[in-house]
Amino acid sequence: WCPQLEVLAHRAVGCFVTHCGWNSTLEAISLGVPMVAFPWWSDQPTTAKCIADFWKVGVRVKVTEKGIATAKEMEYCIRQVMEGERGKEIKTSASTLKQLVKEAMEEGG
Q1: Angle, vertex CA 81, rays to CA 75 and CA 83, nearest 5
Q2: Domains in the chain and their CATH numbers?
Q3: How many CB atoms lie within 10 A of CB 81?
Q4: How far is 83 from 75, CA to CA, in rounded Å?
Q5: Phi, psi values for residue 35, rounded to 5°
Q6: Can you tell me the mean pLDDT for 59-81?
Q7: 18 vs 6: CA distance, rounded Å
Q8: Is 95:32 a contact under the CB 8 Å cutoff?
Q9: What is the pLDDT of residue 21?
Q10: Does the CA dihedral 85-86-87-93 come out positive or negative?
Q11: Residue 93: how many CA atoms within 13 Å on its side-chain side?
């Protein structure tokens, strides 16, 4: 256990590897933190789809037929979020969504 909001808000955090629980996802979005989506069950795969395909604030980990994410896949996903043109696009989307959340929370939002 850790104070997740404090950790996610720290300037050293470049991305968040998440199981895609709704609370964790909302925390990352509200702080503008790009995500590596690694869902397990229930609503998490749907949330992962939103993260990667709709909001474009992260990427989804591909798992083997046994449901295992390889070290190579994890590295690839983290690099996609942290580096290069795709990383810039994801960071821009995360920043935009953060701003929209902020505006929605303001009076009259």
Answers
A1: 85
A2: 10-101 (3.40.50.2000)
A3: 24
A4: 11
A5: -130, 150
A6: 98
A7: 16
A8: yes
A9: 98
A10: positive
A11: 19
**Could you identify the residue written with the tokens 């995360």?**
94
Q: What is the rounded average pLDDT of the residues 54-75? A: 98
Q: How far apart are CA 94 and CA 88, in angstroms?
A: 10
DSSP assignment, residue 70? P
Task: For residue 21, count CB atoms less than 10 angstroms from its CB and return exposed for 0-12, middle for 13-18, buried for 19 or more.
Answer: middle
With residue 9 as reference, give the H or E element that holds it. helix 4-9
Cβ atoms of 81 and 34 within 8 Å: the answer is: yes
Q: Are 94 and 29 in contact (CB under 8 A)?
A: yes
3-state secondary structure of 16: strand
Outline where DSSP puts E strands in the chain. Answer: 16-18, 35-37, 58-60
- Secondary structure (3-state) at 55: coil
